[in-house]
Amino acid sequence: MNPFYKKEYSPVEVSELIAWFEARIDRLPSSLVIDAATETDDLPRTVKSYIRIISKGVPNVSFCGYVAQLMRIRSLVENNLAPEKA
Question: Torsion angle, CA of 77/80/81/83, rounded to 10 degrees?
Fold first, then answer.
């Protein structure tokens, strides 16, 4: 289970998360292995898609998985665990 997942996120948490990505969208790695079952070949596009989705649905519990996934991605990027594909 994603350690960042919870059933509800505050609007402040979501706004801060979105702002973090928007400030760095041009510096994100091009691709990322997020976990054993999840990989993206276009991380900036994936992040933009998730932001578009959560901007419409938070705090709806149906969208919390997207928020958790963005939090996981942020953690990987912050810790330089985001290897680009060769």
Answer: 90
Confidence of residue 57 (pLDDT cuts 50, 70, 90): low
> Are 6 and 68 spatial neighbours (Cβ–Cβ below 8 Å)?
yes
Residue 73 CB neighbour total at 10 angstroms: 24
For the entire predicted model, the pTM comes to 0.84
Exposure string (b/e) for 30-57, b if CB count within 10 Å is 16 or more? ebbebeeeeebeebbebbeebbebbeee
DSSP secondary structure of 49-77: HHHHHHHHHTT-GGGHHHHHHHHHHHHHH
